[in-house]
Amino acid sequence: MVEIVTHIKQNPNSTKRVLGLSNEQLNMLIDKAKKSEKKRKEEIAKTEIRLIKPGGGRK
After folding, report:
1. What distance lies between CA 4 and its chain's CA centroid?
2. Is residue 15 within 8 Å of residue 5, measured between CB atoms?
3. What percentage of the chain exceeds 90 in pLDDT?
4. Quick one: pLDDT band at residue 9, thresholds 50, 70, 90?
């Protein structure tokens, strides 16, 4: 997977040939995936039961 990402970053014009998406579509897809992952992690953090509250560790 890393090889594909480095190839696309080095050759943004070949994105259509490799993935079937334009470079702009790929960037939009990556941005949406990052936002979705951040939202999912926030939801997990809300329901997580912690013994020590965040920031309440050793000082």
Report:
1. 16
2. no
3. 27
4. confident
